[in-house]
Amino acid sequence: MKQFPILYWPRKTTADTDYQLARKIINNMTGVMPDIMTGDVDLADIVAKNPGATVYFPVFCESTGWWGELLGTNATVTDKVIISPECQLMVIEAAGNASNHEKSGKNQLLAAEIYPASGFFKKMNSGIATVADMLATDAGTILALFSGKNQNQFINILESTGNSYLGCIGRY
After folding, report:
1. Which domain, by its residues, includes 120?
2. I need a labelling partner for 164 at 20 to 30 A (CA). Which of 32, 92, 139, 153 fits?
3. Pick from 69, 168, 163: which is nearest to 121 by CA?
4. Is residue 103 situated within a structural domain?
5. What is the sign of the dihedral through the CA atoms of 155, 88, 94 and 67?
6. Cα–Cα–Cα angle for 49, 55, 58, rounded to 5 degrees
7. Cα(21)–Cα(34) distance, rounded to whole angstroms?
8. The domain boundary residue, chosen from 66, 94, 122
9. Within a 13 Å sphere around the CA of 42, how many CA atoms are in the beta-carbon half?
10. How many structural domains are present in the chain?
11. How far apart are CA 146 and CA 61, in angstroms?
């Protein structure tokens, strides 16, 4: 399958060594220099308009909640590439691409929008999934990122507690 790498870079690119290194590493991995996207981007729109593309999304050491950009997209995190101690690239592909690394039994990153309740967290941290990251929203909900092995069991628990499931956003 032909590679269509896209590097999203939210920072100024001039004299940014992580940016230069990211481009070089992507070129070495794919044999193609990536297209560059900067500024505010809609990841769902990028994936929809470029179904064969692989998006490289930087996560900097001070970043929190980077995965929120993936909610609602038809995308999967298939790998991560360490660029430097301050930056790693999340490799994001449209769900269903042949190159996705969907291996059963492996931990997955699962995201959900939930209303916080102590019983919910107790149940979720008891072997089905472990809370990895959370973001509070203005609407009073929490966007939570979980690590777990069974997406179907995760969805069933979410739905049985009356919470909203927004999709699986990655597998490692």
Report:
1. 108-171
2. 92
3. 163
4. no
5. positive
6. 140
7. 12
8. 94
9. 6
10. 2
11. 19
Tens of each residue's pLDDT in the chain, 172 residues: 456 899 999 989 989 999 999 999 999 999 999 999 998 888 888 888 888 889 999 999 877 777 777 777 778 888 889 999 999 998 988 876 645 455 444 667 788 878 776 666 666 666 777 777 777 878 777 888 888 777 788 888 777 777 777 777 766 5
149: which 2 tokens? 């092995």
Q: List all residues 6 or more positions away from 97 whose beta carbon is below 8 Å from its beta carbon.
A: 1, 51, 52
Give 66's contacts (C-beta < 8 A, 6+ positions apart). 57, 59, 90
Contacts of 93 (CB under 8 A, 6+ apart): 53, 54, 55, 75, 76, 78, 99, 100
> Would you call 58 helix, strand, or coil by DSSP?
strand
**How far is the C-alpha of 13 from the C-alpha of 17, rounded, in Å?**
8
Check if the beta carbon of residue 168 is closer than 8 Å to that of residue 75: no
Whether the model clears a pTM of 0.85, i.e. scores above it, the answer is no
Q: Please check whether residues 151 and 90 belong to one and the same domain.
A: no
Distance, in Å, from the CA atom of 162 to the CA atom of 156, rounded to the nearest integer, reads 10
